[in-house]
Each structure stands twice: as structure tokens, then as C-alpha cells.
Amino acid sequence: MGTIFLQNKHFSPFDILVKNFFQTEEQFQTPTNRIINHPVDVYEDSDGLYFDIACTGLTKKQIDIKVEDDILRVSYTKKDEKDDEDRHVHHSGIAKRSFNLGWKIARRFELPKIEASMKDGLLKLFIPLQPESKPKAVSIK
Question: What is the pLDDT of residues 108-140, one digit of tens each?
Fold first, then answer.
């Protein structure tokens, strides 16, 4: 059995399982999940596959789109910004976090024919369907 360390306190899995069974003076705090999901919409229609990726505050040149075999990878690496001595930040609300997104694309889509456009901080990707992958009507003889 492993032990979870929270704020210099030790909790075994059994402690977590029965934390509310006995009233103690100690305040239990659950660990926080530090995974930050990047805002992305993925949807499909009869023409192909669409990706809408939020890229607020970024330019086209800062975003890297790569296609390798059947893998689509979209990434941005934040550069270290040195604070100016004359600049005093009162509030920093726009998070330009690095991201590295990847998807395995099904063979029914023509990944080499991917189209990309960017407008108002939204990166739009379109991958068309293979012509032979589109549904065909079959008549019964």
C-alpha cells in the first residue's frame, strides 16, 4: 500500500477510505489535479473532421502543426519572458500556456489534405473524408 503526502501529513489509502467515519480534529484536503486541458472542439460531418483550437493571444507563426503518418500534432511552446524593470504588472489574466496536442486520425480521412486557418484567436483545422469513405447508396437487385 502506498502513502499519500498532503501538506507534510501522511494518509494511507485506508485513511482516505474512512476519512469521514470518525470525526477528527484534522481537516482532510483532497489532492488537486494539476492537469490543464486545452480548450478544443472536435466534430465531424459528411465532409470531414473539424478541430477548433483556442489560441488566444497567439499568432500563426507561433503555432506548429505537424502531420506524421496518421498522427496530427498541434503545439505551442511558450518562450521565457524576462520582466522589464520599468514594467509593473497589476494583473495577468491571459494565460499563454504551452500546449502539445496530438490525435491519431482514422484512415477514412485524408490527413495530407489538411486545411488550417486562424481568425480571432481560434485555430480551425479541416481534414476531408477520403472519396471512397463517403456513404454510398446500394440498390437491392
Answer: 999 999 999 999 989 999 999 988 766 778 888
